[in-house]
Amino acid sequence: MLDLPQLKFIWKSPTNFLSLQLLQLIYVDGCPKLKSIFSPTIIRSLPVLRQLEILNCEELEHIFDSGDAQELKSLFTCSQQVCFPKLEQIKVQTCNLLKFLFHNFEAGHFPSLRILEILQCSQIEKCFSFESEADIDGKVGRDKDSKQVLLQNLRNIILIHLPNFKEIHHGFQLKDDVYWTIKDCPEYSPIMGNILIISCLTFSHNYYFCFGQPQLLNSILL
Fold this sequence. Notes:
Shape: globular
Strand order of the largest sheet: 1-3-5-7-10-12-14-13
Distance between the termini: 39 Å
Mean pLDDT: 75
Largest sheet: 8 strands, mixed
Number of helices: 4
Structural class: alpha/beta
Strand content: 25-35%
Order of helices and strands: EEHEEHEEEEHEEEEEEH
Radius of gyration: 17 Å
Low-confidence stretches: 134-145, 192-209, 211-222
């Protein structure tokens, strides 16, 4: 979907008979009136989706329709089905009303995710946000002082010009082999661990690419 200035809905109820079993790519660019992308009913029917790109949607507030909050919460807490088993790449750019990528939706629904890109989203604070962070601690069986490694296949994280971005996931710990590109994210301080920076190369002024978990990242980016 490209340059649709009047588009307000992608899916509209009823969606019970909608079948998207073979859809591999969702690309949305230049839809300034769009408020959300998915309804909970739709996300159950995307088993082979591999790539999700959302660009230049100025009024986008939620990737999942907040009007279906109860249904989404039920999906999050009760469903044993992995909603995006094949999704490998997520890119979100210039969506300045978006505060979270996924609200009340755990990272376990993205077992194949390899590339995560968030660019030029002035309001975004987190990738995964929950109404109660204590609830998610209990769900994954983790005590408050420990960190769990999630998104086991994640290899590339690109975060550029996100002035309010604070964290990817509450209690989230990166694997050692993640490649980082970080620019202009003054509020983001990744979880520190006993992981050495293997390399950190400057591509251009204030633009850094790191392999391994960034240690003392704020000092590096000065």
